[in-house]
User: Which sequence fits this backbone?
């Protein structure tokens, strides 16, 4: 079986500047991969390459064994800036509908799908609200619902909780784990929060900057389902946390 | 809040009444000859007479129809052309200089050209209204399209929306506040040019009614026409305001 995401010697040069260099990566089906690294290491660019929003100047990105030359409908992207990624003139239901419209779902079939998707992210009661009437956490849930509407094989998340407060963030971490556990999607999750990476991931990838390259690949051997208190107290979690912090310290030195 | 709004409305009404009373006083004191400034009572009588005989209603209807037709023509052209220029760099570069040359031309300078081309016809008046009202619509649409959040275009790409779907579902609604502001300006221009066009081309309407009344020293009829023009402008602003409130509901978060 081919890996859902594979990068083969991927490099990217933009305007004479080397952004990413020699990226080789295989991601297992249904796994949760977190990417960390100091700012400017190309984490987000790497995600955009997998999304097909940017094309590599060398090597190739494959999804399900085919080369990525443009964005694909079975690859969904959750952007960090939910406030800009939602259509402000559409209600919550309307925003989810956008993805269904793009997928060519018949108008008659949409309302039930929308209800189901909003229910899954806990927004069933807020279908008629506009994004401006929702909190940051609700808006990000809405964006996740829109991505789930694509029934993605691959879910790409670019620092999705970076702008949220700590309580909301922890709640959403658990919701995302539950949602992707149900859907079986392969997740590629960029974050600058090392504990978040260890808490969520099966694998944590550490990037180094100038040019961006993979420096570390750490397997996370923490039991699932994870728990905000119990998991974070495990010796293995603390060891991982230490390893990642040490990595970041040397990366930034 | 509601109470205060009512007070302001009452205030604006009082200003209006005070002006009419001042007009009545000036006319009654014969500070200006009634041949040039009839009292509002006589203007009102002329208006009632015109409405009862149906003559002025017919003139008004002619002007309204002309204004709306010309404005609709300008809106369709303005939004279509604006969308093209706003979404295509090639169109911007190819059409830009020509439009910059045409844009500052006063519509009144176009009228003799239009008369030469179309004669003293309805088509000529429509053409002039369309030309004059096109620019506010076009510029507003171009501006609205240029201000679309780039992230939303990326969302469109990630969802695999077609170019047409992106224009219809993302760019056009996003540009709608600008387009409606342009429509408001365009409607005013259309009203002005409808009046001027009728005067110059002798087409049946309020403009012609005013001109003929002035030439025949029928001052009350003249003023009745002017008052109707004012009311027409006020009414069109109210209608656009209602449309704006309805279409931009999402902004009142």
Assistant:
């Amino acid at each position: 079986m081919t890996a859902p995401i594979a990068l083969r010697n991927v490099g990217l040069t933009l305007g004479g500047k080397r952004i990413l260099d020699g990226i080789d990566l295989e991601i297992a089906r249904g796994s949760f991969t977190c990417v960390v690294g100091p700012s400017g290491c190309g984490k987000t660019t790497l995600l955009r390459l997998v999304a097909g929003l940017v094309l590599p100047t060398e090597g190739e990105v494959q999804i399900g064994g085919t080369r990525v030359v443009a964005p694909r409908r079975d690859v969904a992207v959750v952007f960090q800036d939910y406030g800009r990624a939602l259509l402000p003139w559409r209600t919550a239901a309307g925003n989810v509908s956008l993805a269904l419209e793009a997928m060519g779902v018949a108008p008659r079939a949409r309302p039930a799908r929308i209800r189901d998707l909003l229910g899954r992210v806990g927004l069933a009661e807020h279908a008629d609200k506009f994004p401006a009437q929702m909190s940051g956490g609700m808006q990000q849930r809405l964006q996740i619902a829109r991505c789930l509407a694509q029934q993605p094989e691959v879910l790409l998340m670019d620092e999705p909780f970076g702008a949220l407060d700590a309580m909301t963030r922890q709640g959403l971490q658990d919701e995302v784990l539950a949602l992707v556990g149900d859907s079986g999607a392969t997740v590629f999750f960029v974050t600058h929060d090392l504990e978040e990476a260890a808490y969520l991931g099966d694998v944590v990838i550490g990037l180094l900057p100038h040019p961006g390259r993979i420096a570390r690949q750490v397997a996370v051997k923490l039991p699932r389902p994870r728990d905000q208190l119990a998991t974070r107290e495990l010796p293995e979690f603390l060891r991982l946390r230490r390893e990642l912090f040490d990595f970041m310290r040397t990366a930034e030195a | 809040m509601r109470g205060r709004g009512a007070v302001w409305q009452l205030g604006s009404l009082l200003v209006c009444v005070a002006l009419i009373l001042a007009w009545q006083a000036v006319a009654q004191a014969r500070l200006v000859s009634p041949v040039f400034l009839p009292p509002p009572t006589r203007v009102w009588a002329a208006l009632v007479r015109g409405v009862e005989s149906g003559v002025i209603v017919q003139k008004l209807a002619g002007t309204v129809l002309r204004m709306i037709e010309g404005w609709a023509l300008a809106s369709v052209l303005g939004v279509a052309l604006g969308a093209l220029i706003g979404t295509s760099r090639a169109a911007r570069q190819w059409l830009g200089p020509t439009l910059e040359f045409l844009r500052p031309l006063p519509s009144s300078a176009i009228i003799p050209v239009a008369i030469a081309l179309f004669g003293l016809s309805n088509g000529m008046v429509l053409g002039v209204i369309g030309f004059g009202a096109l620019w506010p619509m076009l510029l507003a649409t171009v501006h609205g399209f240029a201000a679309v959040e780039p992230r939303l275009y990326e969302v469109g790409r990630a969802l695999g929306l077609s170019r047409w779907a992106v224009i219809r579902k993302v760019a056009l609604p996003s540009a709608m506040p600008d387009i409606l502001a342009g429509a408001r300006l365009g409607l005013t221009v259309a009203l002005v040019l409808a009046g001027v066009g009728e005067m110059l081309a002798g087409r049946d309407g309020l403009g012609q009614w005013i001109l003929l009344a002035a030439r025949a020293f029928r001052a009350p009829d003249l003023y009745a026409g002017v008052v109707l023009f004012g009311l027409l402008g006020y009414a069109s602003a109210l209608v656009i305001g209602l449309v704006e409130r309805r279409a931009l509901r999402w902004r009142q978060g």
Summary: Chain A has two domains: 1-74+154-253, 80-151.
